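During the no-cost extension, the postdoctoral fellow (Dr. R.K.) reprocessed legacy sequence entries with the updated structure-token encoder. One reprocessed record is reproduced below for audit purposes.
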Amino acid sequence: MGQSNLGHFQSQAVPNTQSYMMQDNQEESKVQQEVVEKIVTKEVEKIVEVPAKLHNLNLKSKPTLGYWNIRGLGAQIRYLFHYAGVEFEDKMYVYGPGPDYDRSDWTNVKFNLGLDFPNLPYLLDENDGQNYKVKLTETMAIMKYVCAKWLPELYQQNAVEMSVCEMLQDKLQTLKQAATMPCY
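Re-encoded structure tokens follow.
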């Protein structure tokens, strides 16, 4: 008891059908291998699937970021560009020394850039040779644009994720203001 009857069945094979069975097994093995390859290929494609682009923007464009020649609100956008591997022009406006703190470097061009709400930081992108299609101001709007365009995996994918991101953004903004306002 407990012993396998496999030997018994193997010895019962008819000698003249062995070559037919071997050929049949080879064909079956080949079909099985093809099926496995197809399944593995599909699974690998799922794993390495890149999120679909949510836009038709040029990923190879070279945006321009404008901000003062300090870290301030421009730093986090610069970090995001570097993280995304995006080559960008970093237009830094000179903020003169005290006691006057001359801002003419910025104010001389402020209303000539075609920005809806002229402010720093700003982002210009998608230049068609004459005009920029994308002209943004405000740090959060710029950061969301950068993520949506170049880092969709960091950008929210559904209503719940979007709401959680917005909630965290508001909390971080409150914390940031509490930490930075005493410096001014």
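The chain has a mean pLDDT of 81. Residues 156-184 form one domain. The remaining legacy entries will be reprocessed before the final report is submitted.
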